[in-house]
Each structure stands twice: as C-alpha cells, then as structure tokens.
Amino acid sequence: MAKLRAPGKPVRLAKGRVNAGVGAAYYERICLLIKRMHRDTLRTIQVHYRRAEPELAQDANPVTSLRDVLRKLRNKWSKLFNEQAEALAETFIKRGQNDAEGDLRRRLNRAGFGITFKPDADLKRKLSIATEQNVALIKSIGEQYQDRVQAVVTNTVTSGSNLGKLTTQLEASFGISTRRAAMIARDQSHKINQSVERERATGIGLKEAYWRHVGGGRHPREDHVKADGRRYFVAEGCKISGEYIQPGELINCHCRAEYIIPGYND
Question: Staple 258 to which of 83, 143, 210, 233, CB 3.0 to 4.6 Å?
Fold first, then answer.
C-alpha cells in the first residue's frame, strides 16, 4: 500500500471517535447471559434455602446440602459461559474492527485520500489475541459471580440470616457483575478501536501523532490531561509519567491519537 503524503506541509488528520453502539451491543449480550445465570441461581437457591430454614432454626448446619446445589450451578453456568464466550468475543472484535476502519476511511476521504484497507497479518494476529483476552474476561464474570454466591450463601447460613437478606445480597452480587460487564465493554471498545486505527494508520505511513485527551470518566488521569497535544512517534508511544504508552492502552483510558500526514517537503 502506498504511503500517504500531503501536498506541501504536514496535515493533521481529524480525530476519530468510538461508536458507542458497538460497546453497548457487546454489553447487552453479556448482560443477557448474566441475567439468565442470576435468575436460575436465585430461583434454585431460594427453593433449597426454604427447605433448609427449619434446620437453621434448630442450629443445624445445612451447608452440606447447599454445597451440592452450588457446585451444580457453578458447573452448569461455567459450561454455558465457556460455550458462548468465544462467539460473543469474535462478534464484538469484528464489529469493532469494521467500525474503526470505516471511521478512519471516512476521515481520510475528507482529507482527500481514498484508501482501501487490505488483509493484514499483524492486525489479524493482534485481533486474535484480543479475542482470547475478551473470552477470558467474559468467563471471569461468571466465575466471579459464582464465587460471590458461594461466599454469600455460606455467610448467610453461618450467621443464621433469613431468606430475605440472602436474596438482597444475591441481587447486589448481580449488580456487581453487570457493572463489571459495562466497564469491560466500554474499556475494550476503546482498546480495539485504537489498536485497529493504529495498525491501519502506520500501514499507510503515518508515523507521528498528537496525544488527545478525551474525557468520559469522573476522575480523569491528570497526566493524560497534561499530555493533550503532545507530539509523539506512534511506534514507541507517547511518554507520559515516565513510560511510553498508547492511547486507550491503560484501563478506562479514552484518549485518542490525532495522526499527522507528512508533507512532501518533510
């Protein structure tokens, strides 16, 4: 692919954006799986806990009978998460790639450059790694939920609390899982977007960029804010707080690169 050159002076390529719909769709699909798991877990535990409540009133220990129930729930939902994680991750990564490439093409067209991206081995390898990482993240949501359920049930039985308190704590655990899914979807959307854009930009000869801070969180990184407008070499990353990093690389970083199209006089 030919390397881009602007007539005369270098040109700043307009800063891109992340399509929130890609992350939202990813979150919705993960959340649907979490909701199914939670409903099944809550219903099953409520039924068995009601049976165990007479034992609690007599200071007996119903943990043994509930332990088998929890083990079966964990096995069931671990299997379902494992079966669906890869398809969920692959769909998300592909949508993220298409969106990032489409956005970059549109900005290049507005700058006067018509570009068609071709298959790229390095990009394919990096997206494969990203898919594996997202599969692991999805699986971890189910695993951590089941860990919390185990702890909640054990603590409730040990303290002799009633079913109402147990249900409240299980609902809280569900909330933790959905919030984590939202964070993963949001964070990974930015990571995939910037990774694809960076690969495609460097593939057409864009070697330098400006770091652009993009807000979005209640607690922005002060050093990222200060780095806004800093010029850097894309291959090594922008030096911030003593280390070279890429936009979107750190968790919940929404910063972006503003690429520089070199001029013929460079």
Answer: 210
Residues 6+ apart with CB under 8 A from 67: none
Residue of 21, 132, 125, 129 whose CA lies nearest to 85: 132
| CA separation for the pair 176, 186 (Å, rounded) | 15
Tokens encoding 253: 């970083």
The pTM of the full predicted model, rounded to 2 decimals, is 0.90
Is the CA virtual torsion 147, 150, 156, 159 positive or negative? negative
Average pLDDT taken over every residue of the chain:
91
Listing DSSP states for 219-263 in one string gives S--HHHHHTTT-EEETTT-EEETTEEE-TT-STT---EEEEEE-B
- Residue-level length of the chain: 266
From the centroid of its chain, how far is CA 76? 24
Cα(129)–Cα(96) distance, integer angstroms? 14
First to last CA, the chain: 20
